[in-house]
Amino acid sequence: MNAGDRVRVERAGVTNEGVLMPSSTPDHLVVKLDGGYNVGIDRDDADVEVLETDVYDVEDAQTDDSSASEIEFDDDLPTVSLISTGGTIASTVDYRTGAVTAQFDAEDVLRAVPDLAGRANYRGRVVANILSENATPDVWRDLAEAVREEIEAGADGVVVMHGTDTMQFSASALSFMLDTPVPVVFTGSQRSADRPSSDNVMNAVCAVEAAKSDCAEVLVCMHATESDDVCALHRGTRVRKNHTSRRDAFETVGAEPLGEVDYESEEVRFRREYAERGEADLSLSPELDGDVDLLKFTPGMDVDRYGEFLKDSELDGLVIEGTGLGHVHTDFIPVIADLVDDGVVVAMTSQCLRGRVCDRVYDTGRDLLDAGVVEAGDTLPGTAKVKLMWALSNLEDPAEAMTRSLAGELQQRSVPWE
Q: In the chain, what are the domains?
């Protein structure tokens, strides 16, 4: 029994049939099913029948993939820096557990996506090798510093490979921390490369095309539809992951995406004004205040308990996800007033996906304003948290900054667009 044989494996009453693949551990068999998925099977007590030998030349296929990904320097091509932080786009399957695990560095991404060859000259760099739920402000700072260094070294654009779960937070952080003269494009994958429906190739290719464009902003590039046709380009401070697993999970909230990349024609199109390449001087302000929290108000919250918790937390800033126009229970307002009196900046956002905070309509809202709450307009709650972390460390009046747009996070008007 060798890799490349077609086998039937029975274990614990379950039968799997497919092509035997190389395994990362001697304790497990790896079988590629006819549908394209790989399964890991514990060798213990497994009954294996070889149906046909050498139906697939695994070694030659691996060699072909490697040679197809060779990148040669071309003076006529722009230079794009690929920065890896981990995530599904840079992941493989751990057949010990059957789960997806981050293992690839940026060089591996080039080998895994040979379609990137010939589009640019590439530099690879690893900042972290984590799943994005493990990202921290320290990772954001390291990432921002790496992007700055790559641009200083001559990169014409930067693509950040990132896990999708917290990509919107990292993109927001870099939007505030970095003034960039070139595009910085975040991309990821909702489905890992071993799945036939993986979106990793198209997202990576479209991200590189966006990194070669004239839009010198922090962008998120992901599938615009469930089909393999167009990737949307979202402004880093206006994007939100709105589905757990769909390939078109990311949306620009309150507006259309800033632009798009046509996968087939490779055309990059923009719908609205953007910062153009070369307009800004490269600069980095990486400091973040870690004593900022995001609190979602819900009916039935224990005001006394949360009041004590907030007081003991010794926060510098608090972002509240209020109901509707930006409201909380009336009994919570004195708690907020005490926080403001203690020097905490308290900013109000809304749980609603569209529209903006306006605390001048109802009594509760006016009482909140009297308590010192700052309205954050239509800034997304997660973005507002990152913004306040940055503003507290870099601006003289962080409360005032929450009321105006710094990086496209706060729109002047909330109008229907769909």
A: 5-52 (2.30.30.520), 79-284 (3.40.50.1170), 292-403 (3.40.50.40)
